[in-house]
Fold each of these.
Amino acid sequence: MTDKVRASSEELSSLLPEAMNGWKALPSDREFTFDTLFDLINGGAEVYRSLNVQKVLDRTYKKAGAADIIVDLFDMGSSQDAFGAFHHDIRESADVHIGQESEYQGGSLFFWKDRFFVSIVALEETPRIKEVVLALGKAIAVNIIGTGNKPDIVKLLPSKGLQKEQIFYFHDWKSLERRYIVGQENLLHLSKNTEGLLARYCVMDFTIKNSECGLALLLIVAYPYRSDLSAAQQDFSTGYLKAAGPDEIVEISNGVYAGFRTTGTHLFAVLEAPDQATAKGLLDSVSLKKRGDIDERR
Amino acid sequence: MREDDKKEGLTRRDFLSGTTKAALAGAAGLSVACGRLKPNADNEEKQDNLSNNMKLESRSTVVLVRHQHVLGPGREIDSAILTKMLDDAVAELMGSSADNAWKGLVHPDDVVGIKSNVWRFLPTPKVLESAIQKRLRWLGVTEDRMSVDDRGGRSNPVFTNATALINVRPMRTHHWSGVGTCIKNYIMFSAMPFSWHVDACANLGGLWDLPEVKGKTRLNILVMLTPLFHGKGPHHFQARYTWTYNGLIVGIDPVAVDAIGVCILEAKRKAYFGRGEPLSVPPKHIRVAETRYHLGVSDPSRIDIKRIGWEEGILI
């Protein structure tokens, strides 16, 4: 993880245009911090706080007789967490090539670039408003000069069958729990110092008729220290995998298979797969990726 | 239906805690019950106590009022029609004329807080707030003893001294509690709203035991003019996922009002996505409001819906 940086209010403000195609910014921006973000998005603030949000600039663009357009510029402090903020939601629509990854849907544009996550929401959806929303996004993306890296662990995801629209990056237990319940306690010893990825795979499942693919879920967690991983491995095995050891694939419920493996400070776990072979195959693939990553660094 | 929306509905359900059968069953629980609702079932039981001190009976009644022309082509609200919708609903709920019904709800000596909702993407309509205020004036409540507020409620002297509350807010999906409801609308009475977020906000019913609130609510109005049935992003809002339902759900029992609101949202999601699509976060707090806090009736099969007005696209 990189050290956090935080833009000044002036720097944030300078990234947003004053006007766009007849829509003008209201004179007063609103600014929110880690502590005050609840005032902007209430319960949703938990998502961005868990990803270390530093500051948010909220600006409304108005045009007489037309719907407001609201821009929120999230300074996430690192490109990794900007990536996480973007991927908190499923991104199933086509990338509109604004910033490093983007999605336009239903009058809204979301993208990330460098350490910034940007949300542009129009209160109505018309072809004209879509044009303006996209133009605003392009202008902001151009103003953000740099680019940033995705989290390193994203490179470890096997590509075959990966559903790219569903890559979920997180740090702590509460965030994982919102996506997937792995027992009732923090079995994986997740904290603000861990990095996690939950990814969905489309795999062959011969038990499902008339279905193109079955579901498998791969979890990757990077721990800061080997000792953290050891504790997590023990609790995860006991609490989720019927005390199965590394590389042992077990049926955790009817027709649902799971298992795990560790390498260095990383834990790889298949939380669900339709059969043993698929679970083992995914673990083999991610291990291979990890070995390749190590070789690449040498 | 757009292909990407169809895909969103399927994958989101599968990904959330959700691939487990138990989690899916919980998320879909209200849907199952919603299917058993009968139109305009008679309610023999009387609501003889209008506050939260009421004994919770085994059934509740809500009124669903709709009007085809309450919204114009630009979704502008016809205030006269909306005012009449409100009066008609209150009259039907209380089983008397509108005048007598309002007299039965609020006393001229009451200090009345109108708990609104200022969420900028879908706020409580000003014209509806005005319609309520107009009725309060007609009842004899003076200006200094009535106030409309949302986030300032804890410091608003009318609210801190309130003897009566009227709870009015729009219905929407919500990324933390599943749905934004009448039950949830009292979260701003808490000094620490975020402390209610655990477990999909399951304990929101507990808000109604706070001293500022307990036993004071006379009427709950869930605004269903343009409800939000789906959303994503920090604000969980896309204009595409609102529709002109043109309705209000009105009741004494906030749990029943919210449960019926959820049934309508779920029906809309089914119609839009082409199949039953559980909310991304199950609206657990509605059921828990009954089972743990005894605030009202959450099982739609024990809620009698009195329908008034426009029937096309009613979804329930």
Amino acid sequence: MVTNKLLKAGRDITSKSEPILELRGICKYFGGVHALEDVGLELYPDEILALVGDNGAGKSTLIKIIAGVYQPDKGEVLMEGKEIEIRSPRASMDLRIETVYQELALVDKLDVVENIFLGRPLTKFRWFVNRKRMVAETVDILKRLKISIPSLKEPVQNLSGGQRQALAVGRAIAWSGRIVILDEPTAALGVEETRKTLALIKQIKEQGASVIVISHNLRHIFEVSDRIIVLRGGRRVGSRIKSKTNIDEIVKLITGSL
Amino acid sequence: MVTNKKDKEKMPSGVAVAGRAKKLLNLFSYQAVGTLLVFLALILVFIFFTPHHLFVDPRNIKALAKLTPDLGIVALGVGMLMISGEFDLSVSTVLPFSSYIFVLLLRAGINPVFSLFMAMGVGALLGLLNGLITVKGHIPSFIATLGTMMFWRGVLYVHSRMWPIGIRAYFPAGSSFEHVLIGEIGGVVPAQVIWFVVFALILGVVLHFHKFGNWVYATGDNKEAARAMGINTDRVKTICFMIVGTLSGFVGVMQLLRLGSFAATQGLGFELKAIAASVVGGTSLMGGIGSIAGIFWGALTIQILENGLILMRVPVFGISAFIGLAVILFVVLNTYMRRRMMMMR
């Protein structure tokens, strides 16, 4: 236990342990707009990394590159030291990277079970949907994450905002072994729901996965994250270990008044 | 992601039962219940109000049974495509086009079975084209298929000069090929009905039990979400377009055999009737909602409505007015019932 803590502390200071995911010199242009300019990012095992910045700073673009939605125009992506290309959302998922988008990516008219297994249902005889096993797995996942949803048969449009959020996060945790990316997980949530979601994020780390979380809410960031990377105008302007910084400094980095 | 046994045992048994019940419900989806009720009501009305109760006359029933699958099979594909969020107006051209290809091949002395597959293949190809134009061109399928409908119709009319081509000269009556497509089982049940049911079952299994069906619903309901979760929505839609084309090709040949002669106007009006049938069967115009059972009943309903009205001596040109009215009433009813179901939950 103590050694574990020491190791972590050591890594925090020297960053000597090898990152599970590393982005180097990433550039992304949309027409003439430089969304990202020479941005690097490194994510260590068992870490909750926060990505902050003002609107248009490039946070979403950066995670969409990791999620396989966008391809970088320049730069390289390394996973456990090996250079890789993430060509599609499917490729990202195959690398066991799960992304929870701000808009949650739930299909309203499908039920809870179908949403958990959206796009990759469990099958029997190779092709046919194995509903029974999916229901069993869903019950298992929800129980493990202490998410309470009244009925699994409910189309998810009938769920509350918090339940939907929990479902999307739960899906990511259930599928991911390595990296979970969360885009504004606490936006549009009530107080109680926010508390639950933050607890869920900490739970991801306990399950042995690394987390990248985007949020505008610095209080939430400081509550859950280990390290904070600040973007401004498509550039990385700083990386701070949470225990060695404060909200004030981060705000100054975000606004560029430092 | 592997459930261990312990957790499985702890799973509330009600959930498993509910899952099975849902499977049944899927087949006779609640969206189809409204359609089914009105369908039965229509039958009663027509039985009592057609002169001499002609509606239930065996000859009429047999005629209906031979006629309905034409629209029905096309509608199954169109409805599935609508669930994926797209339309296909070109069925009314793909159908005679495939039929024309079949006749040409037949005339060239090619084996009818092979010709049938070629006709279906051409249908699939035209469907593929519709799909590619829609997803690669990023244009609404309503427009894309309106264009292809008019384009292929023009090509067909010019090339065939709109002359009817009788098939008897190239095709002996009573061949086994003809029996399989339009014969009568035991001299009672027309083969068309069997084909309708077979296609409905196949597509029903694909849509409700196969993982492709899952993708279709996800694509139609929330394309962005589906794509974010790794579903290739473009491919899903294109495959749906191809299914419609293939089915239209099949119906083109089946209808050709029944009519005994190719007509460039085969399937005219099917594009909107197939959509009407799907909508009457509870398919949403927005995508993401619908079921094969619903589409099946919807097609039957449209056809029975038309047939009953003809028997009741409603002027031919007035029938369209009734069908239009019926479509609106059905959708209102279905929407109302769906809302009630939602509230009852």
